[in-house]
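Risk register update: the risk of archive-format incompatibility is retired. Evidence:
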Amino acid sequence: MITTKEDLLKLFRKLGLNIADDVMVHSSMRSLGYVVNGAVDVIDALIMVVGLDEGTILMPAHTGQLSDPSGWSSPPLEKESIAIVKEKMNPFDLKLTPVRGRGVIAQSFLSYAGVKRSDHPLNSVSALGKRASFYTSSHSFDEPEGLDSPIGRLYENNGKVLGIGVGVTRFTAIHLAEYIADVDYLKVDNPSVLFKRENQKNIFKRIKKYPGESDRFTNILPTLRKQQLITELEFNGHVMTCLSIKPAIECIVKMLDQNPLFLIN
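Archived output:
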């Protein structure tokens, strides 16, 4: 399937994106078929739909490679290699540290002129547009998807989340509901991350509240669909998804108040 920028414009508008929207974008390039100009067409279409003078595009710029290598499991490091990697790892750099595991669109987005990036060493977010600085200027180390984070500000500002070929299991915004509900499992088995280099030595620090797996986020879909809080369309055999954060998060918080384990069981 050949996909043009014009096809993407129609898709994004049909999903509910408009001029002046602020939107967090999660994406799978493969889901779009053969896009004529690759990630550039996707990003340019998003820019045209929301307008950089009126709206803002955000994308995850996570850097899992900066977590403590002693906890790596995919694949694990040999025991004798852990100390070497910990010593030689470069601390987080807003411009140079590459995105890991978020796809070619998120990585390409960082190269656009004017893109801002928050300074969290594990869960940074990039943004481009009218409120890019607003979203990225502060990012809590100990609650990276909490209210004092780009996601928290997107929630307060009635933003949206767009899934291009990926579903709610990739929506980091849903973790905000876990922080608002203050579920106990946020405080368990949390990662340590390379925090800074001091006196030529790498310093690692454990995050106080950190979300776990998101495989069970599909538990929320029946309710979101019933309450018409989510838009889902098929494109090239893949599901494209869009939701407004505030009503969705408020709905999920109510679920967690009734069952704090709803998103993990």
